[in-house]
Amino acid sequence: MVVMKMKFSFQKRVKLAQGLWLLSWCTTVASAITFTLGCILKMELRRRAEVMDSGNIHVVPNTLMIVGLASLGINYFASKICQDALDAERFPRWKNFLKPYFAASCFFTVLMLLAVIMSYAMKGSLESSLKVGLKNSIRFYKDTDTPGHCYQKQNIDYLQMEFQCCGNSDFRDWFEVQWISNRYLDFSSKEVKDRIKSNVDGRYLIDGVPFSCCNPSSPRPCIQYQLTNNSAHYNYDHQTEELNLYLRGCRETLVSYYTSLMSTIGTGVLSVFLLQGSVLVSLRFLQTAMEAVVGKENTEIETEGYLLEKGVKDTIMDLHQPGRCTVPHICLCSPPSSTLPPQLTSIASDQPVSDPFFSAARSTSSSIPTVTYPRTGSHPVL
Amino acid sequence: MALMLIKFDLKKRVKLAQTVWFMYWFAVMAGVLVFSMGLFFKIELRKRSEFMDNNESHFLPNLLILMGLITCVTNAFGGKICYDSLDPSKFAKWKPMLKNFLVSCMCFNSLLLMTALLCFLMRIPLQFTLTEGLKNGMRYYKDTDTPGRCYMKRTLDLMQIEFRCCGNDNYRDWFEFQWVSNRYLDFSSKEVKDRIGSNVDGQYLMDAVPFSCCNPSSPRPCIQYQMTNNSAHYSYDHHTEDLNVWKRGCRDALLSYYGSMMNTIGALVVLVTILEVAVIIGLQYIHSSLSTLANPEDPESESEGWILEKTVKETFTDIMAKMKAMGKGSKVEEGGEAVVATVS
């Protein structure tokens, strides 16, 4: 049984072709926008690549860019096809192109949907990548003289100032790393020697944070050293002092920034996906409706359009085993006798299936309208 | 002898009208651009009005907005005239006022040129406003509990971070103001008492700068306190250390920011003026070519077009003579009235 059969009068076909042409141009613009959104996302992810450990998240913008470009091509051809559809002479030249075209379009449309799903689902991967990346960046903050790490300090400082965050989970992460380079520590001083001895790794750890953690909205000048020592500063209680430093961790800030960016993009691309799907469905209807008209004298007859000639299951099985016949009087290939029910094998083997004239005569007697140009006797047309 | 005489037949006239119509639409869009630049400049000035003592002159952006609007209107009007010029019946109703329209366009053009000049000159008053405004900004930095000034600290910090500058001329300006509020000073400590005693106004001055002056590109953590005391920090010489805090003063930074904006706007207005001159010349050609038709009834006849009917010198003497005649005419009238008055 046919999937979604619809009757199309001549007027309806014309309207369908015109509507489809307009829709395909709109979708072309939409796919260009998808490509641009993919580029924007990739640029934003590249900007903060130093604080990200793995590049797994880049699969989202890459897919968006590929899908955007592919959709441009798909919609361009869709508009060309529907322009030729109403012209009975020009339409047949698209015949061989349409099957691979629909296969490719379905693949890229599904890929678009996958990209949308991934843009929502990859939050966890992003978070773990940022956790490791930020930890490493904070560790190398002091290495401004080591090649490869010399810009780490600058990047972290600008990151913390721009996103108004401090440390990985919060500002206490800075207490666990030595972020002052040994070049600026006076090793002859008692204080430095005490601190270095006080921990196993011999690091100079302080309860202080870099200046980039300071919050400009604080009413008092920034307190960044001896944060846990209330007596070091006048009128200061580190448990209640809220505004002095940024309280949010940079991991949380960056994750929320990127997830909001990706959800916005995902929603936009979802609407492009719906548009693209409707273009493909309309094109399929137009194609099947026009195929019945080709070769006929009167082009203004009413025809039927459908999505799939057989049911979904049958179509999929046909694609897997092209030689299999389920309805012998329509199939024109010579079926392997093992797949036919026993009572039909004798009938099938009697008839010279490869004779095109015989096949043509048989096919016109069927009730389902098919194309009347000579068959190559290979496999049933979908 | 007319200035720049050109012969026109119907085809050429049609082409001229179409070209000038096109140019008028470009000029309308240019007017919209001038309007939006004026608006943008106004918004930028308002954003940082605290550093200009809330005293900044909005004359220039307002003028730009006005000029943009007038440009749009005049050019739309001129475009309509061009459009009608190909239809003799429609053009007849525009003909009488076309000369006055062209003269007013010329005056407006000179105003536009003056606006462009103003754009380049506005830097100078801005410099003085900024110096005063930034000085006050630094003075009120500590007053985060005074209503009306509580956001000065935040605004100044964010500005120093964004524009990568420190102080008015350089970071030493901070040494002259007390920028730590009294609420956070321990008046029982000897150090605080010494500092306050050491100057006439009783202010707590130190050789330190706020954290927003810190330069992230420095290889070492920021040194913002005891900046002139080399022994307070290991391996530090404040004469040679140049990456620690921003070296530029905020006045310079803001001036160059606004200066480049005004230069761009000024250059754009000059371009718009040139475009306006071109459309005026085009319209003058249309006007002159349509008024010198060899056969007024036949629209396909040949005609001549020019910029000025006589040479520049003769036109100038004509205008002078006209003005003198107008002056004499009013004198005669006055004399006549006086005679009438004495008679009656």
TrEMBL record, chain B:
Organism encoding this protein:
Monopterus albus (Swamp eel)
List the subcellular locations.
Membrane
**Under which name does UniProt file this protein?**
Peripherin-2
Give the record's GO biological process terms: cell adhesion; visual perception
UniProt GO cellular component terms: plasma membrane
* Annotated transmembrane regions: 20-41, 62-81, 101-121, 265-286
Family assignment from sequence similarity:
Belongs to the PRPH2/ROM1 family.
Give the source's domain of life in one word: Eukaryota
Alphabetically list the UniProt keywords. Answer: Cell adhesion, Disulfide bond, Membrane, Transmembrane, Transmembrane helix
Give the record's membrane topology: Multi-pass membrane protein
Respond yes or no to whether keyword Cytoplasm is given for this record.
no
